[in-house]
């Protein structure tokens, strides 16, 4: 983070262990050696039992005994530290040190981590679960006898609830991005914004510009509605997986969501086969009925 006063221990190619101070003045820092904003003496480091310990004597700023402490580890490139990981333990390794009392307090997660978890759950449930289910309701429930117009209202309810919950999740994500300027997940963020824009367009067009079934422009509205809807679903599922990769909540969460998507896809294939069987059978019956009517007419004449 910009403004941090860092102590660095870095192994060299000759096998030695360099220890020095480095003020961080930009996000593109390479942790070059430099003086900190307060005096530091006798910086050294040791490497034992697969652990690095840094030693130093420092003068704290006046009237300051407690400091915020962040520790990190990362790869080495050309005798210089490279960027550390941006997820999991790397974003939870911080705490406070009271040099007067010697008390050390580590913080796991904190408010930021709670908000990230809330954001992840809301977006996974809304964009990643409710939206796909709503699409399946619209596509397959209408095949049931007597399901019209019930399927439409169930579809609208599911998508509306998903959209409202998704707005909260999206807003939480935008807030997290604004509060964490040093850590940006550009791909996840851009996909999230795109999903929100597509879903908002879908809602507005669906509510305000939906023509009647017999309108001559209804076919164009249907094409637009399908393309935007399926595009939103595909991007949403993709972004949920990207979010799981960022949060790293545990293997079971990724496997659980993947199992849900696979199960949903299998159901879609089954329903799709039933749908086309019903459509072809209905067309065949209608064609046969037409032939029978024509034959009856000829006999009558």
Automatic annotation (TrEMBL):
Residues 80-280 form the Cytochrome b561 domain. GO terms for cellular component: membrane. Heme b binds at residues 119, 155, 188, 225. Keywords: Electron transport, Iron, Membrane, Metal-binding, Transmembrane, Transmembrane helix, Transport. It is found in: Membrane. The chain crosses the membrane at residues 118-138, 150-171, 191-209, 221-241, 256-274. InterPro entries: AIR12_DOMON, Cyt_b561/ferric_Rdtase_TM, UCP037471. GO terms for molecular function: metal ion binding. This is Cytochrome b561 domain-containing protein.
């Amino acid at each position: 983070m910009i403004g941090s006063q860092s102590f660095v221990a870095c192994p060299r190619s000759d096998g030695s262990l360099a220890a020095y101070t480095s003020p961080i003045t930009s996000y593109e820092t390479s942790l070059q050696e430099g003086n900190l904003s307060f005096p530091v003496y006798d910086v050294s480091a040791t490497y034992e039992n697969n652990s690095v310990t840094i030693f130093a004597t420092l003068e704290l700023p006046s009237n300051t005994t407690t400091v915020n402490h962040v520790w990190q580890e990362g790869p080495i490139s050309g005798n210089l530290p490279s960027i550390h990981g941006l997820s999991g333990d790397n974003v939870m390794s911080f705490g406070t040190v009271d040099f007067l009392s010697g008390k050390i307090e580590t913080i796991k997660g904190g408010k930021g981590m709670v908000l990230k978890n809330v954001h992840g759950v809301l977006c996974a449930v809304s964009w990643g679960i409710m939206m796909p289910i709503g699409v399946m309701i619209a596509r397959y429930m209408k095949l049931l006898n007597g399901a019209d117009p019930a399927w439409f209202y169930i579809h609208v309810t599911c998508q509306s609830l998903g959209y409202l919950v998704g707005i909260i999740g999206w807003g939480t994500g935008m807030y997290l991005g604004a509060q964490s300027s040093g850590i940006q997940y550009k791909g996840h963020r851009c996909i999230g914004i795109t999903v929100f824009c597509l879903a908002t367009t879908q809602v507005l067009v669906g509510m305000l510009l939906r023509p009647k079934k017999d309108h001559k422009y209804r076919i164009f509205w249907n094409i637009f509605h399908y393309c935007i809807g399926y595009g939103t679903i595909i991007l949403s599922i993709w972004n949920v997986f990207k979010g799981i990769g960022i949060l790293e909540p545990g293997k079971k969460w990724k496997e659980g969501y993947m199992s849900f998507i696979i199960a949903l896809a299998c159901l879609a294939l089954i329903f799709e086969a039933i749908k086309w069987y019903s459509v072809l059978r209905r067309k065949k019956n209608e064609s046969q009925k037409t032939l029978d009517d024509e034959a009856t007419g000829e006999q009558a004449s």
